[in-house]
């Protein structure tokens, strides 16, 4: 029988002081759980008002359950453990009703606005010089700053309300998988504010903190099967369960401009500098994830665990993590070999059904920090770029949108049109595919694009992948 843990506190007795934008599965398996731990251990008014930018469904489903949902923990063996989470007070669908969001932004009780909206939603240029005025929600919000639909416009509006009401700024806490995520959002919000109200830019620069964070917990998307399984165990329907692994990690820069929950009591690490943790996670975990997703998907592996069961692919994953570790500065508290072994065990977890297709989404938004940044470090350090060339080739092969048997799959990426044009005008030549895809806008860093070593190796791997020769790849890699 599965174990069910009920909420050990009365949720309604705790006030709301956090607004969270992007109330998807990851937030519900991560920050909402740390906050639930805090509420259980030390209480406080730390509940979360969720904002859903796109989906109305999640707002309706969670509100119908008073924000309460099941967290399903699946470790390597045994029964799932179900835990009810009470830290979310309710969810507002921004596309339907902005009044409760304005009210929360204007409340002196709100101390933090946190975010998980995925990489593509920000619209900030990769060189962090500012916002991308072509990005759909940025373009919309620059034209209508009073009715923002995107995350940057919404933060700027919220901060404007604080300034106009003479309230202390809230802290903006970005929890997406991006390097220097807080610094990046700061650049975007400041640039946006300066364009719509220059004095607001000055106020934000002086008053608002944007801590950097590293977040980690493998969380597959919720499926109808999970909903049916959990509802069966509970004996009543839960439309919004999330399943995740036992492992969880959160490293937060201790830089808040107002009160914050004692998340360290729930196991979060509050530090002065998040960058070394962030690079380790982005390059070793996420980099290997992207590589295995592209390679595995076209080999017919539906889940990450299927990739790990194929010896040759698992060896390539291990090699990728080792290569990524070589690009990192040492971290006193962490032995990278131990971290790698732990990652491999997590990827192998037979009870987590994490789809390679899910990870393969939005490659143009993920490769720069996961694959290109460590590749550039290799060039700087005189190390082999092979593992990163292979990951890039695997993504390029995936961009062809076709399985080895000719059946087609749909690419999900904000640059899908550009990718389709790049691929179709390249014909069947690997070097032309490489050239066209590496020239996508705001994508590959110049240093990498200019490297003959990188292009030659990537094209060589891409050629092998197009004819489906995984054995030859392993042989080539073992020459490293
Ligand atoms: C994954 C991440 O979908 C992806 O791109 O690499 O969501 C990964 O599972 C998480 O970052 C783990 O913390």
Describe, in plain words, how this protein is organized in 3D.
With 480 residues, the protein is of the alpha/beta class. The protein has two domains: 3-271, 3-Layer(aba) Sandwich (Rossmann fold), CATH 3.40.50.720; 275-477, Orthogonal Bundle (N-(1-d-carboxylethyl)-l-norvaline Dehydrogenase, domain 2), CATH 1.10.1040. Helices cover 49% and strands 11% of the residues. It has 21 helices and twelve strands. The chain has helices at residues 25-29, 31-42, 57-64, 99-105, 136-143, 151-165, 181-196, 198-207, 224-234, 275-298, 304-308, 311-326, 336-348, 356-360, 363-381, 386-398, 416-424, 430-438, 446-449, 452-466, 470-478, and strands at residues 3-5, 16-21, 47-52, 69-73, 81-85, 88-93, 112-115, 171-174, 213-216, 242-244, 249-253, 269-271. It has a five-stranded parallel beta sheet with strand order 6-3-2-7-8, with helices on both faces. The protein has a four-stranded mixed beta sheet with strand order 1-5-4-10, with helices on both faces. It has a three-stranded mixed beta sheet with strand order 9-11-12, covered by helices on one side. The protein is globular and about 60 Å long. The mean pLDDT is 96. It binds D-mannonic acid (CS2). Residues 177, 216-218, 286, 289, 358-359, 366 line the site of D-mannonic acid (CS2). D-mannonic acid binds next to α10 and α14.
